[in-house]
Automatic annotation (TrEMBL):
Domain named Cyanobacterial TRADD-N associated 2 transmembrane: residues: 29-90
Full protein name: Cyanobacterial TRADD-N associated 2 transmembrane domain-containing protein
Keyword Transmembrane applies: yes
Record keywords, A-Z: Membrane, Transmembrane, Transmembrane helix
InterPro entries for the chain: CyanoTRADDas_TM
Pfam family, one: CyanoTRADDas_TM
Positions of transmembrane segments: 38-59
Origin superkingdom: Bacteria
């Protein structure tokens, strides 16, 4: 009986790992692009809401203005925080791939 401890599949396994790493990186780049587009859209919407709040303030509609401006600020903070978290996750995963 012949025992083959070291198969010749090692180069193939390394190639598979390399392809898997490339696919993961491509997926992360795609997700990052989508996240950026989403953050850009939310930032635009929050800017419009904030400007609407300023307009209401000038029309002496103070309660509506404060509510609208507050909503715009909350949207802005939320979108910035979301973008930071996504970028941090991406960096952590790429670092873990580099460690392998």
């Amino acid at each position: 009986m012949k025992f083959n401890l070291f198969t010749k599949k090692q180069p193939q396994e390394q190639e598979d790992k390399k392809q898997m790493r490339e696919k993961i990186i491509a997926e992360f780049i795609r997700q990052t692009q989508l996240t950026f587009n989403l953050a850009l859209g939310v930032s635009t919407a929050s800017a419009i809401i904030t400007l609407l709040g300023v307009g209401l303030f000038y029309l002496d509609k103070i309660p509506e203005a404060s509510l609208t401006a507050g909503g715009g600020i909350v949207f802005s903070i939320g979108s910035v925080q979301f973008a930071k978290e996504t970028r941090k996750e991406l960096e952590e995963i790429l670092e873990s791939l580099d460690d392998e």
